Amino acid sequence: MHFPGESPTKRKQKASFSYGTMSIGAVVAGGCLLLSVIVAPSALPRWGVCWFHRLTGRPCPACGMSRAFCAISHGMWLDAWAFNPFAYIFYLLFLYWLSEPFLVAWGICRPHALMRTAAMRPVWIALIVAFFCHGLLRMFL
Questions:
Q1: Of the candidates 111, 91, 90, 92, which has an alpha carbon nearest to the alpha carbon of residue 101?
Q2: pLDDT for 45-96, tens place per residue?
Q3: Buried b (16+ CB within 10 A) or exposed e, 101-133
Q4: Is 107 within 8 Å of 35 (Cβ atoms)?
Q5: Residue ranges per structural domain of the chain
């Protein structure tokens, strides 16, 4: 998106930044998804990796996400739900971030279309609120 009076150089810088962040997101998402395919949930360390859980003894909103990702990748749907139900949403987001550079290159969508669409703003807000409410319930119940 460009604004009236905006120089072509500025537009090129914005596009470059957009494609750069999109590529980094694809690499990170691809790495996480690849690891979740390679590693079985039972192979993850029993002590966990969450510093919040280690410090307080209570689960954070994202606790169980690594195990849930691995479980989803291995077709263990109920186990994934038990580890963290929000992992399904994040897994789909990671699949989107992995495929986004290809979708943009093929002209199917614009860079960061899912994140920047005004119609999606209430959805993102609702998901964030639900994620943290779920985390608070897990912490105190």
A1: 111
A2: 877 778 888 898 888 899 999 999 999 999 999 999 999 999 999 999 999 8
A3: bebbeeeeeebeeeeeeeeeeeeeeeeeeebee
A4: no
A5: 11-42+55-140
- pLDDT of 3 higher than 50: no
Q: What is the structure's pLDDT at 130? A: 96
> What gap in Å lies between CA 20 and CA 15, rounded to an integer?
8
Q: Do 74 and 40 contact (CB within 8 A), yes or no?
A: yes
Q: Quote the distance between the C-alpha of residue 111 and its chain's center.
A: 16
Mean pLDDT, the chain, whole residue set: 84
Beta carbons of 38 and 100 less than 8 angstroms apart: no
What's the burial of 72, exposed, middle or buried (CB within 10 Å: 0-12/13-18/19+)?
buried
Kind and range of the H or E run holding 3: none
Say how far apart CA 132 and CA 26 lie, in whole Å: 25
Rounded to two decimals, the pTM is 0.78
